[in-house]
Design goal:
This protein is of the alpha/beta class. The protein has helices spanning 25-34, 52-61, 80-100, 117-137, 161-171, 182-185, 191-200, 233-242, 256-259, 263-277; strands spanning 13-16, 39-43, 65-73, 104-108, 141-144, 176-181, 204-209, 249-251. The longest helix has 21 residues, at 80-100. The chain is globular, with a radius of gyration of 18 Å. Bound molecules: zinc ion.
Amino acid sequence: MIHMKALTDFSKICIHTITNKPWNIEECAAHYASEGIKGMTIWRNVLENHNIYKTGEMLRNNNIEIVSLCRGGFFPSADKNKRLKAINDNIKAIDEASELGAPLIILVCGADPAQSLDESRHQIKDGILAVIGYAEKNKIKLAIEPLHPMYADTRSAINTIAQANDLAEEIDSPWLGVAVDVYHVWWDPSLEKEIHRCGKHRSIFAFHMSDWKSPSADMLNDRGIMGEGCIPVRKIRGWVEDAGFDGFNEVEIFSDKYWAEDQLEFLHKIKKAYLEHS
Ligand code: ZN
Protein backbone atom coordinates (compact mmCIF):
# COMPACT_ATOMS: atom_id res chain seq x y z
CA MET A 1 0.00 0.00 0.00
CA ILE A 2 1.29 3.40 -0.97
CA HIS A 3 1.31 6.17 1.54
CA MET A 4 0.49 9.64 0.21
CA LYS A 5 1.46 11.68 3.22
CA ALA A 6 2.22 15.34 2.76
CA LEU A 7 5.55 16.69 3.87
CA THR A 8 5.06 18.79 6.99
CA ASP A 9 8.46 20.39 7.47
CA PHE A 10 11.67 21.27 5.68
CA SER A 11 13.96 18.80 7.42
CA LYS A 12 14.54 16.89 4.15
CA ILE A 13 14.43 19.64 1.57
CA CYS A 14 17.47 20.06 -0.64
CA ILE A 15 17.86 22.57 -3.44
CA HIS A 16 20.13 22.27 -6.47
CA THR A 17 22.22 25.38 -7.01
CA ILE A 18 21.12 25.34 -10.68
CA THR A 19 17.54 25.92 -9.47
CA ASN A 20 18.64 29.41 -8.38
CA LYS A 21 21.05 29.81 -11.29
CA PRO A 22 21.29 33.64 -10.99
CA TRP A 23 22.76 33.24 -7.47
CA ASN A 24 26.39 32.39 -6.84
CA ILE A 25 27.21 29.80 -4.20
CA GLU A 26 27.66 32.39 -1.45
CA GLU A 27 24.19 33.81 -2.18
CA CYS A 28 22.70 30.30 -2.29
CA ALA A 29 24.31 29.49 1.08
CA ALA A 30 23.13 32.70 2.75
CA HIS A 31 19.55 32.47 1.48
CA TYR A 32 19.17 28.71 2.03
CA ALA A 33 20.47 29.08 5.59
CA SER A 34 18.08 31.91 6.43
CA GLU A 35 15.16 30.10 4.75
CA GLY A 36 15.75 26.85 6.62
CA ILE A 37 16.85 24.82 3.60
CA LYS A 38 18.87 21.95 5.02
CA GLY A 39 20.49 20.39 1.98
CA MET A 40 22.25 21.58 -1.15
CA THR A 41 23.27 19.79 -4.32
CA ILE A 42 26.11 21.62 -5.94
CA TRP A 43 26.54 22.06 -9.66
CA ARG A 44 30.16 22.21 -10.68
CA ASN A 45 29.80 25.57 -12.45
CA VAL A 46 29.38 27.40 -9.12
CA LEU A 47 32.74 26.04 -7.93
CA GLU A 48 34.71 27.71 -10.72
CA ASN A 49 37.41 30.04 -9.34
CA HIS A 50 36.71 28.78 -5.82
CA ASN A 51 38.83 26.98 -3.27
CA ILE A 52 36.67 23.87 -3.14
CA TYR A 53 37.67 22.77 0.36
CA LYS A 54 36.95 26.22 1.80
CA THR A 55 33.63 26.33 -0.03
CA GLY A 56 32.65 23.08 1.69
CA GLU A 57 33.67 24.58 5.04
CA MET A 58 31.62 27.71 4.32
CA LEU A 59 28.54 25.54 3.67
CA ARG A 60 29.05 23.46 6.81
CA ASN A 61 29.44 26.69 8.82
CA ASN A 62 26.00 27.65 7.49
CA ASN A 63 24.65 24.26 8.68
CA ILE A 64 24.00 23.19 5.13
CA GLU A 65 24.46 19.52 4.28
CA ILE A 66 26.11 18.85 0.93
CA VAL A 67 23.92 16.20 -0.67
CA SER A 68 25.66 15.63 -3.99
CA LEU A 69 27.84 17.05 -6.72
CA CYS A 70 26.31 17.49 -10.20
CA ARG A 71 27.49 16.17 -12.48
CA GLY A 72 29.80 13.49 -13.86
CA GLY A 73 29.20 11.12 -16.75
CA PHE A 74 29.08 11.96 -20.47
CA PHE A 75 31.17 8.86 -21.17
CA PRO A 76 30.24 7.92 -24.76
CA SER A 77 31.86 9.30 -27.87
CA ALA A 78 32.73 7.93 -31.29
CA ASP A 79 36.11 9.59 -30.67
CA LYS A 80 38.42 7.57 -28.43
CA ASN A 81 40.25 10.68 -27.20
CA LYS A 82 37.00 12.23 -26.06
CA ARG A 83 36.18 9.05 -24.13
CA LEU A 84 39.53 9.25 -22.36
CA LYS A 85 38.94 12.93 -21.64
CA ALA A 86 35.57 12.06 -20.12
CA ILE A 87 37.14 9.48 -17.81
CA ASN A 88 39.69 12.07 -16.67
CA ASP A 89 36.91 14.56 -16.06
CA ASN A 90 35.06 12.01 -13.91
CA ILE A 91 38.23 11.38 -11.90
CA LYS A 92 38.45 15.17 -11.44
CA ALA A 93 34.81 15.26 -10.31
CA ILE A 94 35.59 12.57 -7.70
CA ASP A 95 38.51 14.70 -6.45
CA GLU A 96 36.23 17.75 -6.30
CA ALA A 97 33.58 15.81 -4.36
CA SER A 98 36.26 14.69 -1.86
CA GLU A 99 37.53 18.23 -1.35
CA LEU A 100 34.03 19.60 -1.03
CA GLY A 101 32.80 16.88 1.32
CA ALA A 102 30.07 15.69 -1.07
CA PRO A 103 29.28 11.97 -0.58
CA LEU A 104 27.72 11.43 -4.02
CA ILE A 105 28.17 12.36 -7.68
CA ILE A 106 25.21 12.32 -10.07
CA LEU A 107 26.02 10.77 -13.45
CA VAL A 108 24.37 12.09 -16.58
CA CYS A 109 25.66 9.20 -18.62
CA GLY A 110 25.85 10.79 -22.09
CA ALA A 111 25.23 9.69 -25.68
CA ASP A 112 26.72 10.40 -29.09
CA PRO A 113 24.37 10.66 -32.09
CA ALA A 114 27.31 9.64 -34.32
CA GLN A 115 26.95 6.04 -33.08
CA SER A 116 24.21 3.63 -32.01
CA LEU A 117 22.57 3.80 -28.60
CA ASP A 118 23.86 0.26 -27.96
CA GLU A 119 27.42 1.42 -28.58
CA SER A 120 26.90 4.41 -26.27
CA ARG A 121 25.53 2.06 -23.60
CA HIS A 122 28.60 -0.16 -23.82
CA GLN A 123 30.83 2.88 -23.47
CA ILE A 124 28.84 4.09 -20.46
CA LYS A 125 29.44 0.74 -18.78
CA ASP A 126 33.16 0.86 -19.66
CA GLY A 127 33.37 4.46 -18.39
CA ILE A 128 31.78 3.63 -15.05
CA LEU A 129 33.99 0.55 -14.69
CA ALA A 130 37.02 2.78 -15.33
CA VAL A 131 36.20 5.14 -12.44
CA ILE A 132 34.28 3.06 -9.87
CA GLY A 133 37.46 1.85 -8.16
CA TYR A 134 38.68 5.42 -7.72
CA ALA A 135 35.25 6.44 -6.40
CA GLU A 136 35.35 3.61 -3.86
CA LYS A 137 38.89 4.52 -2.79
CA ASN A 138 37.69 8.07 -2.12
CA LYS A 139 34.42 6.87 -0.54
CA ILE A 140 32.33 8.75 -3.10
CA LYS A 141 29.13 7.13 -4.36
CA LEU A 142 28.03 7.41 -7.99
CA ALA A 143 24.37 7.55 -9.07
CA ILE A 144 23.19 6.76 -12.58
CA GLU A 145 20.41 9.21 -13.41
CA PRO A 146 18.20 7.95 -16.26
CA LEU A 147 17.16 10.83 -18.50
CA HIS A 148 13.90 11.23 -20.43
CA PRO A 149 14.21 9.59 -23.88
CA MET A 150 13.88 13.01 -25.56
CA TYR A 151 17.53 13.44 -24.54
CA ALA A 152 18.72 10.09 -25.94
CA ASP A 153 20.56 11.78 -28.83
CA THR A 154 23.22 13.64 -26.87
CA ARG A 155 22.61 13.57 -23.11
CA SER A 156 21.90 10.01 -22.07
CA ALA A 157 21.50 6.58 -23.61
CA ILE A 158 20.16 5.44 -20.22
CA ASN A 159 16.50 6.41 -20.28
CA THR A 160 14.61 4.23 -17.81
CA ILE A 161 15.06 3.09 -14.24
CA ALA A 162 15.08 -0.48 -15.61
CA GLN A 163 18.17 0.29 -17.71
CA ALA A 164 19.82 2.01 -14.76
CA ASN A 165 19.00 -0.97 -12.52
CA ASP A 166 20.37 -3.43 -15.11
CA LEU A 167 23.60 -1.47 -15.39
CA ALA A 168 24.01 -1.08 -11.62
CA GLU A 169 23.36 -4.81 -11.13
CA GLU A 170 25.88 -5.76 -13.85
CA ILE A 171 28.60 -3.61 -12.31
CA ASP A 172 27.50 -4.70 -8.83
CA SER A 173 29.28 -2.23 -6.55
CA PRO A 174 27.85 -0.79 -3.33
CA TRP A 175 29.27 2.54 -4.55
CA LEU A 176 27.02 2.59 -7.64
CA GLY A 177 23.29 3.30 -7.49
CA VAL A 178 20.47 5.18 -9.17
CA ALA A 179 19.07 8.71 -9.00
CA VAL A 180 15.29 8.86 -9.46
CA ASP A 181 14.31 12.18 -11.07
CA VAL A 182 10.55 12.48 -11.51
CA TYR A 183 10.94 14.77 -14.54
CA HIS A 184 12.70 12.02 -16.47
CA VAL A 185 10.83 8.89 -15.43
CA TRP A 186 7.25 9.88 -14.51
CA TRP A 187 5.82 8.52 -17.80
CA ASP A 188 7.29 5.01 -17.41
CA PRO A 189 4.63 2.26 -16.94
CA SER A 190 7.24 0.17 -15.08
CA LEU A 191 8.21 2.98 -12.72
CA GLU A 192 6.73 1.63 -9.48
CA LYS A 193 8.06 -1.88 -10.13
CA GLU A 194 11.55 -0.64 -10.99
CA ILE A 195 11.70 1.72 -8.00
CA HIS A 196 10.98 -1.27 -5.76
CA ARG A 197 13.56 -3.38 -7.58
CA CYS A 198 16.11 -0.63 -7.02
CA GLY A 199 15.12 -0.35 -3.35
CA LYS A 200 15.69 -4.08 -2.81
CA HIS A 201 19.35 -3.53 -3.66
CA ARG A 202 19.47 -0.40 -1.46
CA SER A 203 20.48 1.42 -4.63
CA ILE A 204 18.25 4.50 -4.60
CA PHE A 205 20.88 7.15 -3.93
CA ALA A 206 18.93 10.32 -4.77
CA PHE A 207 15.43 11.65 -5.46
CA HIS A 208 14.96 14.74 -7.66
CA MET A 209 11.72 16.71 -8.01
CA SER A 210 10.18 19.28 -10.34
CA ASP A 211 7.13 19.16 -12.63
CA TRP A 212 6.33 18.65 -16.31
CA LYS A 213 4.40 21.65 -17.57
CA SER A 214 1.76 20.96 -20.18
CA PRO A 215 2.43 22.28 -22.72
CA SER A 216 6.15 22.53 -22.15
CA ALA A 217 7.78 25.43 -23.99
CA ASP A 218 11.33 24.08 -24.01
CA MET A 219 12.87 20.60 -23.79
CA LEU A 220 15.49 21.76 -21.35
CA ASN A 221 14.65 24.97 -19.55
CA ASP A 222 10.90 24.98 -18.90
CA ARG A 223 10.53 22.73 -15.88
CA GLY A 224 7.75 23.59 -13.46
CA ILE A 225 7.53 23.82 -9.70
CA MET A 226 5.89 20.75 -8.09
CA GLY A 227 2.10 20.98 -8.61
CA GLU A 228 2.40 23.06 -11.75
CA GLY A 229 2.26 20.18 -14.20
CA CYS A 230 1.19 16.57 -14.66
CA ILE A 231 3.72 14.59 -12.61
CA PRO A 232 2.26 12.81 -9.57
CA VAL A 233 5.22 13.90 -7.45
CA ARG A 234 3.79 12.90 -4.07
CA LYS A 235 2.80 9.44 -5.34
CA ILE A 236 6.28 8.81 -6.75
CA ARG A 237 7.86 10.06 -3.50
CA GLY A 238 5.66 7.52 -1.72
CA TRP A 239 7.01 4.70 -3.92
CA VAL A 240 10.58 5.81 -3.34
CA GLU A 241 10.06 5.96 0.43
CA ASP A 242 8.24 2.61 0.49
CA ALA A 243 11.30 1.21 -1.28
CA GLY A 244 13.41 2.29 1.69
CA PHE A 245 14.82 5.64 0.57
CA ASP A 246 15.04 8.16 3.40
CA GLY A 247 17.34 10.81 1.95
CA PHE A 248 16.69 14.35 0.85
CA ASN A 249 13.93 15.49 -1.50
CA GLU A 250 15.91 17.51 -4.00
CA VAL A 251 14.34 20.37 -5.92
CA GLU A 252 15.97 20.64 -9.34
CA ILE A 253 14.27 23.14 -11.66
CA PHE A 254 15.77 24.46 -14.90
CA SER A 255 13.55 27.34 -15.96
CA ASP A 256 14.27 30.41 -18.05
CA LYS A 257 10.98 31.79 -16.72
CA TYR A 258 11.89 31.43 -13.03
CA TRP A 259 15.53 32.39 -13.52
CA ALA A 260 14.23 35.76 -14.83
CA GLU A 261 12.22 36.33 -11.63
CA ASP A 262 13.26 37.48 -8.17
CA GLN A 263 15.05 34.42 -6.78
CA LEU A 264 13.90 34.85 -3.19
CA GLU A 265 10.25 34.95 -4.31
CA PHE A 266 10.93 31.85 -6.42
CA LEU A 267 12.38 30.12 -3.37
CA HIS A 268 9.24 30.99 -1.38
CA LYS A 269 7.08 29.47 -4.15
CA ILE A 270 9.22 26.31 -4.02
CA LYS A 271 8.81 26.01 -0.24
CA LYS A 272 5.03 26.41 -0.49
CA ALA A 273 4.82 23.82 -3.29
CA TYR A 274 7.09 21.46 -1.35
CA LEU A 275 4.54 21.16 1.44
CA GLU A 276 1.42 21.32 -0.76
CA HIS A 277 2.35 19.14 -3.72
CA SER A 278 5.36 16.94 -3.04
ZN1 ZN B 1 17.98 15.31 -11.73
